[in-house]
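Session log. Operator J.P. requested a structure for one protein chain; no other inputs attached. Running the standard single-chain path with C-alpha cell output.
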Amino acid sequence: MRYIFLSLLLLTIKAGVSQDCTKELLRQKPGTWKASSQGFIQNVSAADLVKEKAVIAGIHKMVSTGYHPTGCQVSYSTVYGKHLPAGKNWIADPYYYAMFVLRYLCDPASGDKTKSYVDYSTPTTVNITANVINWFNLYAAGLPDDDFRGYLKLRKKPEKKDGYYYLGEEVMGDADDGKKIKEYHWLITYSDTLPFSYMTRKEYLLIQKKRLEKNIMDSPSEKSYNEKFISNINEYLKKSDKELNQPAISRWNDEERFEGFVEEGSSNSFIAIKYNPDYYHKKLARSVPQFFTVVYKISHGDPVFEENIEAIKKAVDFAALKSRLGK
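Structure written below.
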C-alpha cells in the first residue's frame, strides 16, 4: 500500500512538472535582469565618463531595488557621449539608460511542450536620459549653425503634474491585437523652469523668410512661387509687437511656405521652440545631470507588459532623480 501511494505521488509530481507551457504560467514566472551589449561611448572625457557611469549606476540601483521583473527578462543598456555635429557650445553631456521588457514565450518549434524562450525584441521599453530630450533632439547645446530648420518642434506645451512636466503621449503604432503602442513623456527639471523656450512669431518668420530667399537663389525658376510666401511674411511682420511676440504655432506641412499661424492643439500643428541657455548652471562639469527625461513606451493589451511597466513606474522615483540635478 505504501508503495502504491509513493508511486501515485511521484506520478502526480511528474505530471505537475511536465505540464504544457502556457502564457498564464509564464506570466507568473519570476523574471531576471540582464546587462545587454552596451552602446557607443564617444566625445566624452575620461573624467566625465567615470562620473556619468556613477549616475547611471545609481539609476539602475534605484530601479532594480524597487522593481522585480515577472514573466519577462529585462535587458538594459547604456550610451555615453554625443554626436558633435548635433550641437554647439555644449554645456552638459547627454547620456542614456534603457530597459527592454522581453517576455517569456512558449516555444512552439520545440518537441518539448514545457519549453519556453525569452522574446527576441520588444515594443515595450523605458528610457531615462540625462541632458537630452531625445524624441525631438533637444540637447544642452545650441543648434549648429547649419541646422536645416533653425528651431525644434514640440507637439504640445508641457503640463505640470505633481511637480514634474508631462509632455504628453504619442501613438507609435498598432500592436498585433489592434491595440496601440504608445509613448508617455516626462521631463524632470530645476524648479519650474524649462531647458527650452518658445520661439516668437517674429523669430519664426525671419527664419522662414531667410529660407525662402535661399530657395529663390538656388531655384530661380520657382521665384514666383516663393515670393508669394515672402509677401505673406512681410505683411505679417507689420503687425503689433504684442502679436509678433506670441509663440509660433504652425502646421507640419507649412515649413516651406507661410500662410498664417494656427491655434495650439490644431490638427497636425507644432510649437516652434529653441534651446534656452539661461536654464543651465554653466559652471558645472559636463557630467552633471541638469535635467532628466523619462519615457515609458508600452504595447497596450498584453498583461506582462502592462504589469511590468506599472511596477517599473513605482520604482522610478522622480523625486530621487530631481535631487541629483546639479550634483
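Operator note: The longest strand covers residues 95-106.
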